[in-house]
Amino acid sequence: MHKTTKRIPLILAGMLAATAAWAEKTASGSVIKDPAAGWDHLWREVIIDITIIGILFALMTAYFIWKYRRRPGNEVGNGPKLSAAAAVAWVVIPTFVFLSDDLYVAANGWQLWNNYREVPADRLEIQLETGMYSFDYTYPNGVRTQNELKVPAGKPVLLRMTSRDTLHNHFIPDFRVKEDSMPGRVTYLWFLPKEVGKEHVVTCASYCGVMHSYMASKIVVLAPEEFRAWYDQEGSKQGGSIKTVAENKAATASKS
Amino acid sequence: MNLKEWIFTTDHKRVGVLYLIGSIAAFAVAGILALLMRAELSTVGPTITANPTNYNVWLYGHGAMMILGFQIPALTGFFANYCIPLMIGAKDVAFPRVNALSVWLFYVGIILALLTFVMPDPPDVMWTGYPPYSTITTGNTAMYTFTVLILGFASIIGGVNFLTTVAYMRAPGLTWNKLNIFVWCTLGAFVLQLIFVPVLGTAVTLISLDKYLGTHFFDPTQGGDVLTYQNLFWFYSHPAVYVIFLPFIGVIYEIVATFSRNRVFNYKMVVYGGVFGVVALSGEVWVHHLYVSGMADWLRIGQMITTLMISVPVGLLVIGLVGTLYKGSISFETPMLYALGVLFLFLIGGLTGIPLAVTSLTVHLARTYYVVGHFHYVMAVAGTFAIFAGVYYWFPKVTGRMYNEFWGKVGFWITFIGTNLVFWTMMDIGVKGMPRRYYDYSHFSQFEGAHQLMTLGAVILGVGFVIAVLNWIIGAARGPKAPDNPWNSNSLEWSTVSPPPHGNWPVPPSVGADWYPYGAAKK
Amino acid sequence: MAHHEGAHGVADGHAHWDTSVWPFVISFGILALVIAFSLHFVYHQDFASVLTLGLGLIMIVSGVAGWTSEAMGKGDGMSYSAMGWFILAEAMIFVAMFVTYWYLRLNTDVWPPAGSVDLPKAMPLMMTFVLVSSSLTIHYAEHLLHQGNRGGYVNWLMATIVLGFCFLGMSAYEWSHLMHEGFNIGTNLLGTVFFSITGLHGSHVVVGLAIFLAGLVSALRGNVDEGFARTAGLYWHFVDIIWFFVVSQVYYW
Ligand code: HEA
Ligand code: HEA
Ligand code: CUA
Ligand SMILES: [Cu+2]
To answer: Is C222 in the same domain as C99?
Structure first.
């Protein structure tokens, strides 16, 4: 699949060379760029931005409403008839101002997006198959768990996801990340667990059927050595040879 | 009153009134469904029904009926039908029978939507109808398909009709640059409908083909692709939000200009920058609904920028509105109260769309109550307020009678408080992670209090709406007689008697070179 | 701009309001069709389904007949440009279909997918020939009408209708032939695409023919409307042009 769609981005990548190069730069380097922290930062910025815009417009409106309320002596409106130059200026200047704000937000958003998509190379890679109504994880050594994912603190975790029936979505509010899973495609997301001992709620965020709201999972963050012990023990218990549908598909699939 | 002359009418005003009655009925039903949902969500776990399917069916009915049965028909059915011929000085629309066909198809669509509550296995596919669920559910997806198809077709023939009407039937002397802003906005909406509804029609048809005739469009085991549907669906359904937005902001322009007794600020900026800009950009932004669907990156960056850029033409439209207040002579009758409400609340709704447009922020926000809060502010609050404003505004023209000013204001303030309670809270819990389309939020039980607050708010705002609708019903039945031009407006629709006779004017009007539709009428 | 003085005289409640029952009849006919679909495909009530289907068809046919006889010859000459807008909408349906098709096809490794049969190559050529001829005949018919030759118009209109039915016949033959070989809409992605796109186009041929027949019936009664003729012709040309896309994209690519 995706024979052509793989080529299109290549062409476009050429056109967007500047963006791409810049994205490259931000993604390389050894520090892990945790998107969750980046999200909180960008969110605050954008909220401040739109609050200012909103308050400016609201104050202006409120002032006009009060100032130009109908009173004796003010029975008819007397709005300005703009000269041609003023009329054009009233298009060009706001456009310029709004557009620069938009592009500023877009640039920051795109940078954060690249942090979401560039997965650090040193990672724990897990296959996830979703179905009505469970999350089925498979670790690299074949260990399988359902509706619970144990991860070591400090190591990025990558989920490669697919679905055996309808659309589902692996949403981890604490890590500010979600992505759909669906039959026929492989999608991915990653996150950086930090706090040892913490449990993070995972829910299904795509309407998938009657029991959609009951489809949930959790992420349990263990200390690295604790995780190792659990991982090896489960590995020998479950036997390392189980291959899942998800794994087979992932082997051939591409990320789009 | 002759019932036959109403049901079989081809007159644009009566067709318009039929549209209004149907869409308010749809609003009432969908609103009651919302109250049922709110009741269900008032506690963690099952509250008023133990079967999640019931909730899902309510939610399906609520979303589909509010958008397709209430707002689009009220705006492009009632207002367009009633006002456009009157505003351009025409006797009727170009094709009166086609107009009648469109309103009755609309009623058929409403009937189909209502059948949801009596038929076995009603549709439970949400208003988006995503496959694969919609093709494997036991629910009646065909009903979803046909509801959309029929309402879509009704609106396409309506669009053809109005574009022709405005192109050929304007009064002598009424040049394009003298059209009311509302006419421009509605034309923009109809162009969008003509271009995009067919794509939605195709999308929903393909689901039924897949489900009932065994095709494989969305079936990956045979080379189909589930994301194709989502692309087709949003390729329409994003422009659809501007099909709602444009006419409603047009209504607000009429009202703000009239009650400020002022000229529209920078008319050409509003039309050629605002309306044209929205129409031009609206087709290139649909991917912002697919940010967490596994969409390709190359589509995403471009459409993130175009989505953000929509704030430019919309911003020009807002500037035009605020500017129209400048040096006005503003009075605060009920229509104006609602209109000012729209101006403030649309700011909240529109600006909360900005974080959603940013693909990386949406990774957290998508499919949460934050989105639900955003679109209720723009549609359910701004859109509904605009419709209510417009109905109040043209009420004397339509019925020849006056509504009750006191109850009109009371209704407004009650809904104003209620909406903010409900929809602000939604955005708040959304940011904290509450996913949408949840029958039960047992693993988010910390939000129980917030949900109860929203349920309370929903009851409050419902009371406000009921007061408004009762006010209309009572006013239409026995309100005091209204003068022909109670708001002292210059616009053509006020120059005929209230209610206008068949044919609208004894002698069709013509306008002179210095005529301008806005500003206080010269005595 | 005050026109209100003097207008009150006509506003008495007894003024005549135009009415037409046919839009109502057609709409509810369509409702019956929709219910018939659900009865058959969802609830498997075949008898009830056939009954509703019959009822719906009767309502729609009589609605269209009533509408045409009521309105024919009273057009204001605006229908031609309105048809232009309508065709824009129609074209978008095909755009959506073709984009879906291209997308699915370009993302499939093997095309045609397993289980496909060879699509006929000669038949589509003949069909193209027939459809193009019909576009020419209708054009000539309009030309004659414009010169005031009503008899000639009716004759060439009938020729167009015959050609249209030939086209449908060939299409039906081809479908049944393919289905006989066990190739149908559910076989694989090619079947899905082939039958749905040719079916979609065929349904437009049916609509075009229905418009012509409605025009023919009233023309035989001596009621010829040039605006109607041009509008119907425009639609038919559109159906013809779409066919080129169908042939080139579905049969020969
Ligand atoms: C009338 C309806 C309406 C309107 C007008 C809008 C307007 C906008 N919407 Fe909204 N939207 C919906 C109805 C609407 N939306 C619906 C129904 C959904 C959900 C559907 C579903 O999933 O069920 C949705 C969902 C939705 C999403 C997807 C969320 C998700 O599911 O993940 C996004 C993402 O980009 C988005 C963005 C926007 C933006 C950027 C605008 C912009 O047009 C807003 C522009 C306005 C302003 C910005 C304010 C005024 C401007 C100024 C004061 C100028 C200065 C401002 C700046 C420089 C920023 N909307
Ligand atoms: C225009 C659109 C519109 C409007 C007006 C509304 C109005 C309301 N909506 Fe709706 N809503 C949607 C469009 C709209 N909504 C959509 C598109 C969805 C998404 C669907 C999906 O996910 O697929 C949604 C989803 C949605 C949810 C999310 C559920 C979930 O995700 O699980 C909720 C939850 O509270 C909700 C609540 C409400 C409430 C309380 C109102 C209130 O404002 C309603 C108030 C109205 C009344 C209470 C009726 C009043 C009664 C009358 C006027 C009758 C009077 C008559 C006489 C007196 C004779 N809505
Ligand atoms: Cu799985 Cu929702
Ligand atoms: Cu959108």
So the answer is: yes
